[in-house]
Write a structure and sequence with these properties.
The protein is mainly alpha-helical. The protein has eleven helices and no strands. The protein has two domains: 95 residues, no CATH class; 85 residues, no CATH class.
């Protein structure tokens, strides 16, 4: 026969068992999510579709971000994925549209890729400007720059960054890892276009 004490004890044990099961399930789900995020941030994942391998990777593989004297590389996710948790998750959710474009065949040939290059570049340039080139700054630290090793023009330009001019890395450093769109287009002209449209 069940007494009130025994029912209470069974209830506490049941609640404890449910809580432990939920914690284990939550940890497993979090681990799976973390592994999926880490896996989708690798160069192998980013270049697993032919659109990225044959176009973006083909342009990137011989650049300073892929090969240099120091042997330090920056892969796709270093430059194109925020490193903070909220930004990373938001970016991954937004990147689901890339699957749609893949299956739709938006850039499945070299010519389609070239035709869409300007739209893709504008999107990245606007993001970089709006975030003060956050992804660049994950690796490039202004305070650690050896100004004496820079040319005079670079010293002047970098000093503007220190003085709060509103300039950011992408204003000068573009077309480094990927070819520029055809025509006379750069991030400053794109930002001027965006500012004009906002008025």
């Amino acid at each position: 026969m069940f007494t009130k004490k025994r029912v209470f004890a069974l209830s506490v044990v049941s609640i404890g068992a449910i809580a432990v099961a939920l914690m284990i399930s939550g940890a497993a789900a979090l681990g799976t999510f973390g592994a999926a995020i880490a896996g989708s941030n690798t160069l192998a994942f980013c270049t697993s579709c032919h659109e990225m391998h044959d176009n973006n990777y083909a342009e990137y593989k011989d650049t300073i971000h892929a090969k240099n004297a120091a042997g330090v590389t920056a892969i796709c996710s270093d430059c194109h994925v925020p490193h903070d948790v909220v930004g990373l998750v938001m970016h991954k959710v937004g990147a689901l549209q890339d699957l749609f474009y893949h299956f739709e065949g938006t850039i499945d040939t070299r010519q389609k890729f070239v035709d869409h290059r300007l739209a893709m570049a504008k999107k990245v340039w606007i993001h970089m400007k709006e975030t003060d080139s956050r992804e660049c700054r994950n690796c490039h630290n202004q305070a650690a720059m050896e100004k004496d090793l820079q040319g005079r023009t670079a010293q002047k330009q970098h000093q503007q960054l220190f003085n709060g001019s509103g300039a950011t890395c992408i204003d000068c450093h573009y077309g480094i890892s990927h070819k520029l769109p055809p025509g006379d287009v750069d991030p400053s002209s794109v930002m001027a276009e965006v500012a004009s449209a906002a008025k």
